[in-house]
Amino acid sequence: MPDSLPLDPTRLKFGIGQPVPRQEDPILLQGQGRYTDDLQKPGQLWCVIVRSPYAHGVLRSIDTSAAREVPGVVAVYTGQDLQDAGYGTFRCTLPLQGLANIERPALALDKVRFVGDPIACVIAETREAARDGAEAVLPDIDPLPAVTEASAAAAADAPQLYDHLPGNQVLDFHFGDAAKVEAAFAGAAHVSRLSLRNNRIVVCAMEPRSAIGEYDAESGRYTLNVGCQGVFGLRAQLANDLLKVPVEKVHVLTGHVGGSFGMKASAYPEYICLLHAAKQLGRPVKWTDERTGSFLSDMHGRDHEVEAALALDAEGRFLAVRLTSFANMGGYLANVGPLMGTMNFVRNVQSNYATPLIEVATRCLVTNTTPIAAYRGAGRPEGNYFMERLIETAAAEIGIDPIELRRRNHIRPDQLPYAAASGTKYDSGEFSALLERAMQEADWEGYAARKAASAARGLLRGRGVGNFLECTAPPAKEMGGIRFEADGSVTIITGTLDYGQGHWTPFAQVLHQSLGVPFDRIRLLQGDSDQLIAGGGTGGSKSLMASGAAIIEASAKVVEKARAAAAHLLEAAETDLDFEPHAEGGARFLIAGTDRSIGLMDLAARLRQATGLPEGVPDSLDVQHVFQEAPMAFPNGCHIAEVEIDPETGTVHFDRYVTVNDFGTIVNPLMVQGQAHGGIVQGIGQALMERVSYSEDGQLLSGSYSDYALPRASDVPSFHFASHAVPARTNPLGAKGCGEAGCAGSLPAVMNAVVDALAVRGVTHVDMPATPEVIWRALNPA
Q1: 593: alpha, beta or left, given left = phi > 0 and alpha = psi -120 to 50?
Q2: Which residues on adjacent β-strands are paired with residue 657?
Q3: Please, which residues have CB within 8 angstroms of residue 97's CB and are 6 or more apart in sequence?
Q4: Edge-to-edge strands of the sheet including 169-175?
Q5: What 8-state DSSP symbol labels residue 560?
Q6: Nearest residue to 258 (alpha-carbon basis) of 521, 459, 455, 37
Q7: DSSP annotation string for 680-719
Q8: Which of 28, 213, 536, 656 has a beta carbon 3.0–4.6 Å from 278's, enabling a disulfide?
Q9: How do beta strands 597-599 and 588-591 pair?
């Protein structure tokens, strides 16, 4: 891997390291964003999905006759129609040994398996007519008993969702040497144990899912306008797995996306309904979900029941950590449904501690609930949460300062690169130094006085540490296209996709730094599958590592092409040319020892107009480059939260919140802070407020914002952000990723603070979400 890009952030106003404001924001703030629902296609029809009102039942038949008679209704399709058309099924794409996969049709055929399971789609001239038609569809469903908890689904007498899945189990996952781990626990001086619940989450993206399907009969080509996390990968899934056509017969377009957090990463049943209807009817077909539908049908996040244990020797050094879990998959398997509770537990539970042995045993089971997929962090925050709660518990049981226990077990800089028990190799980090910096920023020594002042007001003050390290997704093939346009602008073409992160600005900073293109002339193209030759999409905190590296490598190829062209126009040897990306007046090629030069942008314009160029001289500076791959990176940090709890009501109030992070090379500190803030707030939401609740028969009890709490601005503190950067050695930029790290640090920091505050009343653990009722009951067990 090449050395990191040389930086001098004091020299370039728009270079790497500068807090350049998001150039994406003016368009959004002025209401000029273009989301899928903003699009109106000529002659478009509307689609409404008919969903199962039962969590579990045999689907005997679907009477669509009355629906077809509703004025304005054009067509009604069922699962049988789609099956007859030959479409493929949705399935898990993970190469997990022992996985019993599930082939999910776009519309249910034999059974329904959660409330909201799509069973038919109604196509009409207007949305209102489609709604009326949907209400007239009459499914004949024989209800069956339902099960909503993974542990309950494992019981011998639990309702069975699939004939081919005895015991409702899709995977019995195991990692680690069980014998060695058992020996470590048997010989340990102390063992700490906790039962932990990783509560189920509704994703709550600001923009509901929406899509428009089109079909061109002449070319046999499908077009889908949809909000997603990457058009290249979505096109492949649609073409190869679902539509069963060559990829060139599918065109995916994405404009602005109002949030996803993992939920919009893959295809959904509605998209097949739209494309089928468009093909059958010869008109565009549009669907936009409503919030109730989003609660029911958008993939949920989290939902694990975990028994965690930590073995320590007489000096308090970690010997082994063990997680034994039930992972809820929901009614079907999402494309990465088992990932979070299996390999991502494995990779992240070790955090930044020198733990020699890891064992993770997870039973993945189906239940009569909405399917589970990736949600911000996707197993990374959970792994860190489990370890940090175990450390605090062990420290209290042994009688050792929890900070000292962390220091004693941190991986030292002289141990790097460090081969973790998970099988990953950490390349860089200064974990103890970062912890010390966080304590300093949090005024660690002043806490005792603050706690006494809270007590004087009848309040319980607690302090929590969330010391974390997460393993990002490894950057795979990513496009770094650079195109010099006729209007003098330069377009970056990338297969990652901005769904709120703000890619345009930092990508432009990387291009400006490496190639000298004027910052205000840089544009970003990211949501058109026809323009891409590769693309890993956005997810797993890898976008800047992948696209940044692709842009750096593509820039080098531009310089190579430009050098040949400049040599021709300047009538000089290539070896006599120096490239100065940040010369006064702009990037240029200069004949060494002379004042003769040509600017890069002028060179691109002249090539566009040139004719009769000799062999070896390019006719443009455009580059289509594919960055191949890089290992995962390891963002890490320390969050320290201080809370006050009113024992009379159980209400939690944040007094202060400090986060110090090692995100490697930071391209734009302003935007990195924004990403950290967002992750922290989502962590606070899960820790204190958010919980999906089902009735015994599988009805969603938390199906609206009247029943499902999200954090508001008044619920969260001002965040103090500091950086302790140690550039990664695994990618040219030295970046480590930051998109999900806020969750990884906030879950343990917040819950450790809550438990610390309650400890004076004898409380040693509460589960997420620590709502006022949960806290009040913990304080008043009688």
Answers
A1: left
A2: 641, 719
A3: none
A4: 169-175, 358-365, 318-328, 304-312, 190-198
A5: H
A6: 37
A7: HHHHHHHHHT----B-TT--BS--STTTS----GGGS-PE
A8: 213
A9: antiparallel
Which pLDDT score, from 0 to 100, does residue 11 have?
A: 58
| Cis amide bond preceding 19, omega within 30 | no
The three-point CA angle 132-133-136 to 5° equals: 95
How far is the C-alpha of 564 from the C-alpha of 567, rounded, in Å? Answer: 5
Q: Is 603 helix (H, G, I), strand (E, B) or coil?
A: helix
Kindly state the DSSP code that residue 90 receives in the 8-state scheme. B
Give the separation between CA 566 and CA 574, rounded to whole angstroms. Answer: 8
The H or E element spanning position 68 is helix 65-68
104 contact partners, CB below 8 Å, separation of at least 6: 89, 90, 91, 269, 332, 333
CA distance 733 to 546: 9
Q: Residue 328 and residue 251: Cα distance in Å, rounded?
A: 34
* Cα–Cα distance measured from residue 515 to residue 200, given in angstroms and rounded to the nearest whole number: 46
Tell which residue, 401, 388, 391, 461, has the closest CA to residue 643.
Answer: 461
Residue 399 has pLDDT above 60, yes or no: yes
- Nearest Cα neighbor of 526 from 513, 535, 518 is 535
Q: What angle do CA 34, 253, 207 make, to 5 degrees?
A: 45
**Model-level pTM?**
0.95
DSSP 169-191: EEEEEEES-HHHHHHHHHT-SEE
Task: Return d(Cα 98, Cα 329) in angstroms, integer.
Answer: 16
How many residues in total does the chain contain? 782
pLDDT tens, residue by residue, 713-753: 999 999 999 999 999 998 999 999 999 999 999 999 999 99
Q: What is the pLDDT of residue 6?
A: 43
Distance CA 222, CA 284 (A): 10
DSSP readout, 295-350?
A: HHHS-BB--EEEEEEEEE-TTS-EEEEEEEEEEE--SS--TTTTTTTTHHHHHHHT
Tokens of 192: 């700490």
CA torsion sign, 172 to 163 to 268 to 52?
A: negative
Residue 320, beta-bridge partner list? 311
Residue 757 has phi, psi (to 5 degrees) of -65, -35
Q: Strand, coil or helix: what is 288? A: strand
Query: In 3D, which of 129, 277, 133, 300 has the Cα closest to residue 211?
Result: 277
Q: Between vectors from CA 215 to CA 209 and to CA 219, what angle results, nearest 5°?
A: 145
Other CB atoms closer than 10 Å to residue 452's CB: what's the count?
10
Residue 3 has pLDDT above 80, yes or no: no
Q: How many angstroms separate the CA atoms of 413 and 429, rounded?
A: 7
List of residues 6+ apart from 77 with CB closer than 8 A: 107, 120, 121, 123, 273, 276, 277, 280
Average pLDDT, the chain: 95
| 46 and 130 Cβ atoms separated by less than 8 Å | yes
For residue 484, the cross-strand partners are 490
